[in-house]
Amino acid sequence: MDPTHRGPERYGRDNDGFGEGPGRRRPARDQLTPDPGQPTPPQARVVRLIAGDYLLTVNPVDGSEVELCPPGEQPGPPARRTATGRTDRERATAPPVPPGPPAPQLPLLERAQERERLARLLAQGRSVRLTGPAGSGRTALLDAVAADCADLAPDGVVRLNGYKRTATDLLYGLFEAVHDSPQHRPDRAGLLEKVRGIGAVVVLDDLEFGGAALEELLDATPECAFLFATVPDVAAPTTDSHLEEVFLAGLGRSAAVDLLERAVERPLTDEEANWAGDLWFESEGLPLRFVQAGALLRQRDLLRTDPEAYGVFGGDGRPADVPFGHDQDVDGVHVPLPSLGEGAAPAPLLASRLSASARDTLRFAVALGGEVPHQAHLPALIGDTHADAALGELAGCGLLSPAGPRYRLAAGVVTQLEAAGYGEGLTDRARTAAQHYAWWAGHPSVTPERVTAEGDAVVAAMAQLVPGDGAGQTSAAVLLARSAAPAFAAGLHWGAWERALRIGQEAARLAGEVAEEAYFHHELGVLALLTGNPDRARAELETSVSMRGALADKSGAVAGRRALALVADRTGGPLPLVLTPPGDELPVPRAEEPPVPPTRATTSVTQTLRPYEAAATAVISRQNAPKAAGGGRFALLAGARRNLVATAAGVLLTGVLGTVVALGLTSGDDDVQGNQDVTTEQSRSQDDGEDEAPADGPADASTPGGTDSGDSAATPGPSGSGTTPSSSGTPSTDPTGPSDGPSSDAPSSSAPSSHKPTKSSTPTKSSTPTKSTSPTATPSDTGSPSPTDTATDPEPSSPDTSDSASGPSSSSPSAAASADSGPTVA
Question: Residue 546 is inside which H or E element, if any?
């Protein structure tokens, strides 16, 4: 058998068990990999949340959709977490343990008095504000006090972090720590109701606000006792807060030396003790400085035993960078102590003896404003599979401090590293981090909770790129905000959601990406609606709809219109006026005249619209009518009454002017034989369709006239009758003048008109009524007709087939009698 040209039996065309009969192929298997010519579209993570009375559908493609929560989908009351549940949640939200050997466990020295006082005040139900400089050991003291107060309150101890958090963020954090309510975020009223019943000891580190915001937090939680830890630069609380103030100072000299010995895990020499005394005076006894000084001494001990211990990282047989700031070679016997300046600012010296991955991690942390990426992201960012161990090196040197579920650089480290040159290439590293986070946050396998835990680093990455000079930087920020914002919304971290949206909107504006800017405006409008700010929601949504309408993004514009309609419904105001794509609009009726039905052309366009476009256009028409009328249910009657008065005034003015013209006509020569043969014609032919709109001007050289959709065709009256009102009550505006008799004000039936054209070569006057109240044809002084008027013999007329709105006029005996009395003047 030729392997190239196989026979039909190899494809199941014979009945040998592989096919079902002759001429039948075996069914093809499902394709395991996608066709390269048709790539699989990326999956969009759509999450549905209950936010107060609204059902929020987080749609990363066209924008989030919000609607009133349907009956039956409103969740029940959230359940309180048990003690075991609170412990498990606290363990899950704690910072990860750095890899590598554990760091020395340092005791809490000279803090017994503050610890006892804080525990006593909290046991009495009083809130305390602990103030101390950065690096004074506030976090270690909070851990000890939290352990002492574990059994004081029914809801236990709740640990929160106030770094870049508002009072509202902290209230929702407290609610989530005590209640188990997945995919549910209560509104403001529901939140205050729930947190009012929480009785817990709240330990809050890194508080960044005071004044009225702090008073709001305390008023919302009357059953909680707070322990705030902050720096002196934060605004002080108000006098009505009744907070106890505890100031945390540095350690004494003996305690500082003791802490250094415990960090080194050996007794200090006299030289080292004297150096520690000088360091205590320079650092004012801050514990953080002695923890870092202990790391310096451990590195010195390693160099004394192995001079090439750090040479592998420097690449030249010497410690990386400059060892201890000296240029002399290390002899393995005597290694000088760091200088006093290096001990007060030890970050560059400590970093010089770390691995290359640890130093790159510090550079990324400096580029992110002090935010250290999670250890799981370090291998991808740095390009080293063992880069996750760098976090352990940094933690062992005292260069990190915990901040909620993650780490950031310790106080003062960013400034020290920037002075040492670690800020070079900051923009490139921030762009690299942004691109990595954009891919990671948008991946379907990454849960919103994981993105929320990394929220500070993600927001910092996009914030560093917004003031950049290149378009690629702002585009990377837009991409990251577009990927991370839906995850923040789904993870109920709405503080980071708002920051990401605002940064993304500004970046899209700078990059000129109008579609992305419209998306961020839409999301900001939805967020404002959910947080109870309808005015801002209306402004953001109208901006988004306008921009998407200009881009012909119909699906996005419809989503914005739905949200706008919900805003109008919830606020009780008028439906918003939004831009409609060309061809989709319908005529909007005015208040002073009844609505005019659309013409055939408009109707045909409307019928071709898709259902959602027609519905959106209908919303625009409905909202304009009541606003323009301004009279509610009697607006239509008021408009009709004004029309009636205007019509009556027009009839009266026409009668007066017609009488004047008639007198001028009859005052001249009475024996004008040509008047008996003058007839009039309709300005339109009989074959014209009744729905055809009037032309802009007459086809011949006749006097132009305008028609109204409700006016009837004007027909000449008897001899001497210039204007005869039609049976519909609409006055005719024939410019030939009124009759001699006083019956010009009374309505009468029109005489039948002939529909046959005359044989005259001169154009005839059109009898089409005009909207002008003054006559268009002025008689001569002798009263004779114009030379352009041609006399024709009247022919038998057929029944009137006028296409006026009032229908065909009928002949009456009075009209017939008056027709015999004199000629008709055109």
Answer: helix 534-550
Task: Tell me the C-alpha distance between 408 and 395, whole Å.
Answer: 10
Nearest-angstrom CA–CA distance, 557 and 581:
10
Query: Binning pLDDT at 50, 70 and 90, where does residue 660 land?
Result: low
The torsion region of residue 552 among left (phi > 0), alpha (psi -120 to 50) and beta comes to: left
- Cα distances from 57 to residues 64, 187, 191, 587, in angstroms, run 6, 16, 21, 34
| DSSP classification of residue 274 | H
Residue 431: pLDDT band with limits 50, 70, 90: very high
Residue 22 has a pLDDT of 43
- What six digits make up the tokens of 455? 């929220």
Return the minimum-mean-pLDDT range out of 10-19, 249-258, 482-491: 10-19
| pLDDT exceeds cutoff 60 at 712 | no
Residue 349 is encoded by which pair of tokens? 């010296």
Q: How far is CA 673 from CA 55, 380, 723, 785, in A?
A: 86, 108, 21, 10
| Rounded CA separation 276/336 (Å) | 14
Nearest to 523 by CA among 513, 510, 536: 536
Residue 65 phi/psi, 5-degree rounding, is -110, 140
- In angstroms and rounded to an integer, the radius of gyration of the C-alpha atoms of the chain is 44
C-beta separation of 514 from 551 below 8 A:
yes
Mean pLDDT estimate for the chain: 73
* Amino acid occupying residue 478: V
Model pLDDT for residues 231-288, shown as the tens digit of each residue: 999 999 988 888 999 999 999 999 999 999 999 999 999 999 999 999 999 999 999 9
H-only helix segments in 265-346 = 270-283, 287-305, 311-314, 340-344
Place of tokens 């550079």: 363
Cβ atoms of 194 and 186 within 8 Å: the answer is yes
CA–CA dist 95, 619 (Å, integer): 52
Total residues belonging to the chain: 826
| Residue 122 near residue 225, CB atoms below 8 Å | yes
* 695 φ, ψ (degrees, to nearest 5): -75, 165
